[in-house]
Amino acid sequence: MAQVIDGKKLAKEIQENVTKEVSRLKSEGKQPGLAVVLVGDNQASRTYVRNKQKRTEESGMKSVLIELDEDVSEEKLLQTVEELNEDDTIHGILVQLPLPKHISEEKVIDTISVLKDVDGFHPLNVGNLFVGKDSLVPCTPAGIIELIKSTGQTIAGKRAVVIGRSNIVGKPVAQLLLQENATVTIAHSRTENLAEVASEADILVVATGLAKFVKKEYVKEGAIVIDVGMDRDENNKLCGDVDYDDVFQKAGFITPVPGGVGPMTITMLLSNTLKAAKRLFDKQ
Ligand code: GUN
Hints:
Bound molecules: guanine
EC number: 1.5.1.5, 3.5.4.9
Shape: globular
Pfam families: THF_DHG_CYH, THF_DHG_CYH_C
Subunit structure: Homodimer.
Function: Catalyzes the oxidation of 5,10-methylenetetrahydrofolate to 5,10-methenyltetrahydrofolate and then the hydrolysis of 5,10-methenyltetrahydrofolate to 10-formyltetrahydrofolate.
Family: Belongs to the tetrahydrofolate dehydrogenase/cyclohydrolase family.
Distance between the termini: 52 Å
CATH topology of the largest domain: Rossmann fold
């Protein structure tokens, strides 16, 4: 029977440490600041952004929300990002994705200062992660590593399989596991004998975006199973990419949905903003 990895509890513990550090910095007259840019009126994005703002304020950081109309020009958005790059009270910049179709997400990401790119999406941060240099690491993958470490199990030398190869989750989490000296396989929709490949994993990270995709045949006895999914089942109930009930008896550790990976993502955003702020304060 699996032990449940409590993402809510871990996220709270890490946020408490961030809050303490922010408080210490503020006592020296230095307040970290995060700016979130929201374009248009996507309801899901609006909810995510509201949560990010709330948690940023709770941590004692400055929180700025810039809202732009759906039909804002690409030029105006790029100019907004450039102004935030120059703003000494802002240490982290996050432009909520997806953006309207007439705006190039690539151009926007490339325009964010590498030092303020708290999403870790800028090509220089991606490259630094790849070569093992200090970088701002994408929030969900960073949270996944913390969740795995919280089990107390050793990562080095273990077989890790990541199902999913997105730039936001699959590829960076594989890179982080490699840095932790796991033997890493990235599997995806074109992988042959996927269940067989997955069932070799001591650490299985699932980011397919398909509700209850991973069944017990995919899971090695005692494996650590990390479910990145946020899906709806046949009864419209929130569920993950892993069939939790099917896998529970076989896994050694498992993250629930909700309450696993989700709560960690915003915490790592705060942690990244703190890291970016400290680096920028040191330069001033
Ligand atoms: N939209 C959904 N997830 C994310 C994220 O992690 N960062 C940004 N910028 N947009 C998102």
